């Protein structure tokens, strides 16, 4: 599926140089890591290790490409529930990330402050406004600490999908961001499906990126299955926001090749033939072919990278198996920073009646 | 006059006479507290609809943008979910937002962000992303306003895990409780009784409600008037109405205690129990609808703690299970002096068996 071209982002001299060969190979390694882990997680659910998972098969290039353009030392990522590939690329501990799918803790066990990766978000479009608020905070910091303007602002990256673009909060977020000229990148993965409803029944006008014009924001619509194109578009968008020039929409046109979740049955709303035709070429095969054609990597490299990715997935599985339940007292511990007498009494009663102490 | 002379004079006057009270309306007291908060906490931000240049439709933020600049006090687009969602992101970036929704009924479009995000971010992040956000909500009825400009949302907010809810009853409390709320590392819904915005009263700016600097005295309930025959339990604008009722009842020799609950979450269970243990009768008064209103929670708590000593079931004098009516019918809906007195009478005349 060839996306209609849309690119209103002004070119900048600081645009990324072409990645070096070792960076290209690292991108492939990450794509392979993500593919292996995603495939493994579906298997874990079938094996009964985890109760559910939201696969991102087919979106590897979009997520790894976006993640590769983020400077996680100063930017902050606001994910949905399907950003495993972004988390992996940004170095989030994947056992701690996967803990949410094992029903250990809703937000995941990773430290959002240390990783600059907001808690796992179940509400569709729920965190998009948070990215705007966080980003406006960087502007406010920059205005009091002049050096950070010169060095560039931290950028908030709001991840959302074509389905989330229907939520009112996404409109409010884009309008607020444009009014505040907040350093935000709205990274839309248009994967063709919001569970069972296709984009054409979801996104009036057919493009989320096209809406940016209405907010006076630049936008880039990019082939979301081309990891280099995604990386480049995101890098340009981040640079624009970092320079204090305001928000940008990036719409990565990709395809959800798997089910919405391990509980979903795509056979009820699309055929296997549809999937083959609409899904297009696999993003990993595509990138492999590019690297082979350029002579950047050879068959032995891919065999080794894929084997290593498999090993990583196995190691993560061991970690997930070893994850034990959190103590029930944590139900009470994290409701407030400063608990209340009422909640304290409930915690004591729970302890007496359920832990028998 | 030199600075040292001024200080010396102040010290002398504090030793020799009670600290003079500033006569302020609640609107002025909140404005003053907000100014002091912005002055002392450089992470504090005020934003919402028309709070900047205009100073808010109730003028609660009057003059603050001029004093502190448009980075600290700013107007937002007209979108309450956007205001709350932005506040959450700013809190994640280490700021202490004090957003305003213009009227209570305008909080409804923000309820998704309040419940699914604001109240849960600390929990979801395992304490790593505290939400030091104080949401100011001009609340309750009594001003003949259009639809959705007078609503009582306390039971809705109090039901949500992760939120704290407070409603001041007078300028003194509004001034001190707001400063206290903003200093708390958890989200607080600050419900301002808009019917009381313009009533002036003495505010002791240096000492808090209990007359000392103890933070604990800003938590829990307070006894607004002592009595021995029954306890009227109220919050917000209903406190002054209950004080009027107590005044009238006193003429008939009935001494009513008025307990100002203040914090609607957490509820001061010990304070409630202590008062009703003395009076053995309780009437809870609120503007919100009856069914599943906060009065039900109060009644349950009182019944549980005072079951052995209660002389009558806890009475509830509340709004009705109807949409908040338009101004002409408002007085029929909000508990008035007669309805509260009937409630008192029912409790006093109750006989077992």
Automatic annotation (TrEMBL), chain A:
Its EC number is 1.2.4.4. Residues 29-312 form the Dehydrogenase E1 component domain. Keywords: Oxidoreductase, Pyruvate, Thiamine pyrophosphate. The lineage of its organism: Bacteria, Bacillati, Actinomycetota, Actinomycetes, Micrococcales. Its cofactor is thiamine diphosphate. CDD domains: TPP_E1_PDC_ADC_BCADC (cd02000). It is an enzyme of class 1 (oxidoreductase). GO terms for molecular function: branched-chain 2-oxo acid dehydrogenase activity; magnesium ion binding. The branched-chain alpha-keto dehydrogenase complex catalyzes the overall conversion of alpha-keto acids to acyl-CoA and CO(2). It contains multiple copies of three enzymatic components: branched-chain alpha-keto acid decarboxylase (E1), lipoamide acyltransferase (E2) and lipoamide dehydrogenase (E3). Belongs to the BCKDHA family. This is 2-oxoisovalerate dehydrogenase subunit alpha. GO terms for biological process: branched-chain amino acid catabolic process.
UniProtKB/TrEMBL annotation, chain B:
Its cofactor is thiamine diphosphate. InterPro entries: THDP-binding, Transketo_C/PFOR_II, Transketolase-like_Pyr-bd, Transketolase_C. GO terms for molecular function: magnesium ion binding; oxidoreductase activity. Pfam families: Transket_pyr (PF02779), Transketolase_C (PF02780). The keyword DNA damage does not apply. Keywords: Oxidoreductase, Thiamine pyrophosphate. Residues 24-199 form the Transketolase-like pyrimidine-binding domain. CDD domains: TPP_PYR_E1-PDHc-beta_like. This is Alpha-ketoacid dehydrogenase subunit beta.
């Amino acid at each position: 599926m060839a996306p209609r071209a849309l690119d209103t982002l002004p070119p900048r001299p600081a645009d990324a140089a072409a990645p070096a060969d070792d960076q290209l190979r690292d991108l492939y390694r990450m794509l392979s890591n993500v593919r292996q882990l995603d495939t493994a997680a579906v298997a874990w659910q079938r094996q009964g290790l985890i109760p559910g998972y939201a696969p991102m098969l087919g979106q590897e290039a979009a997520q790894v490409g976006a993640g590769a353009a983020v400077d996680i030392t100063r930017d902050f990522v606001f994910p949905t529930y399907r950003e495993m590939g972004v988390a992996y690329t940004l170095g989030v501990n994947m056992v701690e990330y996967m803990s949410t799918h094992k029903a250990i803790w809703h937000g995941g066990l990773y430290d959002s402050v240390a990783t600059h990766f907001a808690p796992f978000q179940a509400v569709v479009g729920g965190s998009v406004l948070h990215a705007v608020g966080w980003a406006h905070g960087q502007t406010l910091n920059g205005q009091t600490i002049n050096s950070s303007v010169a060095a560039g602002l931290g950028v908030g990256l709001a991840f959302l999908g074509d389905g989330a673009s229907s939520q009112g909060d996404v409109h409010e977020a884009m309008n607020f961001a444009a009014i505040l000229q907040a350093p935000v990148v709205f990274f839309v993965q248009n994967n063709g499906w919001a569970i069972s409803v296709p984009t054409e029944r979801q996104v009036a006008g057919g493009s989320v990126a096209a809406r940016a014009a209405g907010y006076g924001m630049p936008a880039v619509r990019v082939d979301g299955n081309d990891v280099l194109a995604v990386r480049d578009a995101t890098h340009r968008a981040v640079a624009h926001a970092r320079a204090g020039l305001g928000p940008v929409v990036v719409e990565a046109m990709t395809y959800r090749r798997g089910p919405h979740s391990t509980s979903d049955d795509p056979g009820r709303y699309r055929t296997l033939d549809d999937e083959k035709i609409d899904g297009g070429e696999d993003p990993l095969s595509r990138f492999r072919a590019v690297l082979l054609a350029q002579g950047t990597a050879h068959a032995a490299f891919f065999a080794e990278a894929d084997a290593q990715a498999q090993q990583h997935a196995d190691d993560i599985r061991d970690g997930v198996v070893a994850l034990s339940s959190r103590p029930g007292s944590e139900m009470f511990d994290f409701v407030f920073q400063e608990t209340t007498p009422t909640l304290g009494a409930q915690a004591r009663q729970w302890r007496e009646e359920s832990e028998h102490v | 006059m030199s600075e040292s002379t001024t200080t010396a004079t102040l010290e002398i006057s504090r030793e020799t006479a009670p600290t003079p009270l500033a006569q302020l309306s609640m609107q002025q007291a909140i404005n003053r507290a907000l100014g002091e908060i912005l002055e002392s906490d450089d992470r504090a931000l005020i934003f919402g609809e028309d709070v900047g240049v205009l100073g808010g439709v109730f003028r609660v933020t009057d003059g603050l943008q001029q004093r502190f600049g448009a980075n600290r006090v700013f107007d937002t687009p007209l979108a309450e979910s956007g205001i709350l969602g932005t506040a959450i992101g700013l809190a994640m970036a280490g700021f202490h937002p004090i957003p305003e929704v213009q009227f209570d009924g305008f909080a409804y479009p923000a309820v998704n962000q309040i419940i699914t995000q604001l109240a849960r971010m600390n929990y979801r992040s395992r304490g790593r992303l505290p939400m030091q956000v104080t949401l100011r909500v001009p609340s309750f009825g009594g001003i003949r306003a259009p639809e959705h400009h007078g609503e009582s949302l306390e039971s809705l907010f109090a039901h949500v895990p992760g939120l704290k809810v407070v409603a001041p009853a007078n300028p003194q409390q509004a001034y001190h409780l707001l400063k206290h709320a903003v200093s708390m590392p958890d989200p607080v819904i600050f419900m301002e009784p808009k019917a009381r915005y313009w009533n002036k009263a003495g505010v002791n700016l240096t000492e808090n409600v209990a007359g000392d600097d103890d933070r604990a005295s800003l938590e829990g309930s307070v006894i607004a008037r002592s009595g021995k025959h029954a306890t009227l339990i109220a919050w917000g604008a209903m406190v002054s109405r209950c004080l009027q009722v107590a005044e009238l009842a006193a003429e008939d020799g009935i001494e009513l205690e008025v307990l100002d609950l203040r914090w609607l979450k957490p509820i001061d269970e010990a304070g409630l129990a202590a008062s009703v243990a003395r009076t053995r009768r309780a009437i809870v008064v609120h503007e919100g609808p009856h069914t599943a209103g906060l009065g039900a929670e109060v009644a349950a708590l009182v019944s549980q703690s005072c079951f052995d000593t209660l002389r009558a079931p806890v009475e509830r004098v509340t709004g009705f299970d109807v949409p908040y009516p338009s101004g002409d019918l408002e007085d029929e809906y909000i508990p008035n002096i007669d309805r509260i007195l009937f409630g008192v009478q029912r409790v006093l005349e109750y006989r077992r068996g």
